[in-house]
């Protein structure tokens, strides 16, 4: 069992929360400077556990294309493919995906995620000029996944 901050559990318990949007994450560049803090996935585990205990209907969280490595397909990347992250941020996001899958398979928790690219490219400020395609991943209760690219 995961230790859950009292405030989080109380907030979900008393507010009638039906969905949780977990948007917190460390930026990739910062993560490389502070790998131990980046690896810490307790925030997500706290959210998953309180959602399980309080029977929250859905949890949304941000994934990242950082889970993919140099041998992953570049376009129309399938759900089940090579994930060889090369950064500590990608490693932590990969671990988070496995934690979400575990909570889905063992507790039936409905989890939804988008694997976003970085919102700002190192050389350019506009995402569309970076030639990166966001990948959407949706978890369903019947263990099927829907994959879309844009």
From TrEMBL:
Domain NAD-dependent epimerase/dehydratase: 9-117
UniProt record similarity statement: Belongs to the NAD(P)-dependent epimerase/dehydratase family.
InterPro entries membership: Epimerase_deHydtase, NAD(P)-bd_dom_sf, NAD(P)_epim/dehydratase
Superkingdom field: Bacteria
Pfam (any one): Epimerase
Entry-linked SUPFAM superfamilies: NAD(P)-binding Rossmann-fold domains
Protein name: NAD-dependent epimerase/dehydratase family protein
């Amino acid at each position: 069992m995961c230790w859950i901050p009292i405030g989080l559990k109380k907030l979900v318990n008393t507010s009638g929360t039906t969905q949780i949007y977990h948007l917190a994450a460390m930026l990739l560049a910062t993560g490389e400077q502070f790998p131990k803090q980046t690896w810490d996935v307790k925030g997500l585990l706290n959210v998953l556990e309180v959602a399980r205990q309080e029977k929250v209907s859905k949890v949304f969280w941000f994934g990242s294309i950082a889970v993919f490595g140099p041998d992953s397909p570049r376009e129309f990347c399938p759900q089940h493919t090579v994930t060889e992250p090369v950064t500590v941020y990608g490693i932590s996001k990969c671990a988070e995906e496995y934690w979400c899958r575990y909570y889905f398979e063992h507790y039936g928790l409905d989890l939804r995620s988008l694997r976003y690219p970085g919102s700002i490219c190192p050389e350019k400020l506009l995402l569309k000029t970076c030639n990166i395609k966001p990948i959407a991943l949706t978890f369903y209760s019947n263990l099927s996944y829907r994959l879309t690219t844009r």
